[in-house]
Write a structure and sequence with these properties.
This protein is α/β, with parallel strands linked by helices. It folds into three domains: 171 residues, 3-Layer(aba) Sandwich (Molybdenum Cofactor Biosythetic Enzyme, Chain A), CATH 3.40.980; 78 residues, 2-Layer Sandwich (Alpha-Beta Plaits), CATH 3.30.70.2860; 154 residues, CinA-like (Maf protein, Alpha-Beta Complex). It contains 15 helices and 17 strands. Helix 3 packs across helix 4 and helix 10 packs parallel to helix 15.
């Protein structure tokens, strides 16, 4: 099945909104084994939308549109799809009831223009929107499928997972399953070389490597007939990869590093505290996104100035004067002082130069020291990261969490990867 994505919205063309819908849909279609040939963006202009729909239907089997489902005059995606397919628009009673219920819950009067959100091309399969007022729809005509989705990413993702994916599975007659192996501490090129023979010899299970900020991933994908268990194909390949990359693997699946660390701390019955300088609270921010983190995260401090390092963490004035804030000894004293302050089992400290200024030949931009006080010892790790300020801070935060993860594993308090 060949697919195209058509994103509707003048705000996308003006660069006012980042088009994350296209990225998300591209990945999900790939996971389903659907070939995506083209992504196009058009403004809120009826003629251009219809022209883009017509051109796409001349090239593809499946067209997915995003945006243009609101109540205003320029929200005309459904109408343009209906016109191009020669269908009239009809009101769906269930969609109207959903709209009325939503407005009743909000204590607001539904305006007349909102009624258009319950209008769909005749014969369309309605896609429920559990996260907003605008339902989507799927229309089949002349051997084509057109799926019309809302623009807001939160609504689009919920609708795709709950409504579109099951719909497409029924149409495809087969299952595409993927499994992600997440690694840290190994670059994509080294990762690919470690698996080169397996990649060259791959058959039904395909192996692909790619990198993101601070980590590299292996994606395993298999195409199964209806009723087959994908694990029967994926498990043996994963086992071989584990044998080669075990010390670099930190998670299997979609779980990210903050989720892994919180899970490990919970299972070990341990607590964590943070003292951040150059990361400026980024580690705490990532961790607080994880539900249940309150069970393990005791406290966090942004000790950016030398005075804060002294007053809050007890870093010695002599240390700061002799070796500076960005040094192994300062990171060590920060971690030890944090333990005295918080009593946490694992105490992380981060100090570094995020740039773009402030670097010297001895202490370049990107130099970061990460300290960790554990129940056994205090360790300090030195890194020199490259990139802009955002990248350096993000890499430092990621590596700090990985240091905690490895310390928990090395203490035999938890298993490396479930």
């Amino acid at each position: 099945m060949i697919a195209e994505i058509l994103c509707v919205g003048t705000e996308l063309l003006l660069g006012q909104v980042l088009n994350t819908d296209a990225q998300y849909l591209s990945r999900r279609l790939s996971e389903l084994g659907i070939e995506l040939y083209r992504i196009e963006t058009v403004g809120d202009n009826p003629g251009r939308v219809r022209e883009a729909v017509r051109a796409a239907l001349g090239r593809c089997d499946l067209l997915i549109t995003t945006g243009g489902l609101g109540p205003t005059e320029d929200d005309l995606t459904k109408e343009m799809v209906a016109e191009e397919l020669g269908l009239d628009m009809v009101e769906d009673a269930q969609a109207m009831a959903h709209l009325e219920e939503q407005f009743s819950l909000w204590g607001r009067q539904m305006t007349e223009n909102n009624r258009k959100q319950a209008l769909f091309p005749r014969g369309a399969h309605i896609l429920k929107n559990a996260r907003g007022t605008a339902p989507g729809c799927a229309v089949e005509a002349d051997g084509h499928i057109v799926i019309v989705l809302p623009g807001p990413p939160y609504e689009l993702k919920g609708m795709f997972e709950a409504e579109v994916e099951p719909y497409l599975h029924d149409k495809l007659g087969y299952t595409i399953a993927s499994r992600f192996i997440r690694t840290i501490g190994i670059g994509e090129s080294d990762l690919e070389m470690s698996l080169r023979d397996m990649i060259d010899a791959q058959t039904n299970v395909t192996i692909a490597t790619y990198c993101s900020l601070g980590e590299a991933q292996v994606r395993l994908t298999v195409k199964c007939a209806a009723g087959e268990d994908p694990a029967a194909y994926l498990d043996p390949v994963e086992a071989r990869i584990r044998q080669r990359l075990d010390r670099f693997i930190y998670a299997i699946g979609e779980t990210d590093m903050p989720q892994v660390v919180v899970g490990l701390l919970k299972r070990a019955g341990r607590t964590l505290a943070l003292a951040e300088s150059c990361t400026g609270g980024k580690i705490a921010d990532w961790l607080v996104d994880v539900p249940g983190v309150s069970e393990v995260l005791l406290e966090g401090h942004v000790t950016y100035s030398n005075a804060a390092k002294q007053h809050t963490l007890g870093v010695k004035a002599q240390t700061l004067q002799s070796v500076g804030a960005v040094s192994e000894q300062t990171a060590r004293e920060m971690a030890q002082g944090l333990h005295e302050l918080s009593g946490a089992d694992y105490c992380v400290s981060v100090t570094g130069i995020a740039g773009p200024g402030g670097g010297t030949p001895d202490k370049p931009v990107g130099l970061v020291y990460i300290g960790l006080r554990t129940p056994r010892d205090t360790q300090v790790h030195r890194f020199v990261f490259t990139g802009d300020r955002y990248r350096i801070r993000s890499l430092a935060a990621l590596r700090a969490l990985d240091i905690v993860r490895r310390a928990l594993v090395e203490a035999d308090e938890v298993m490396l990867v479930e």
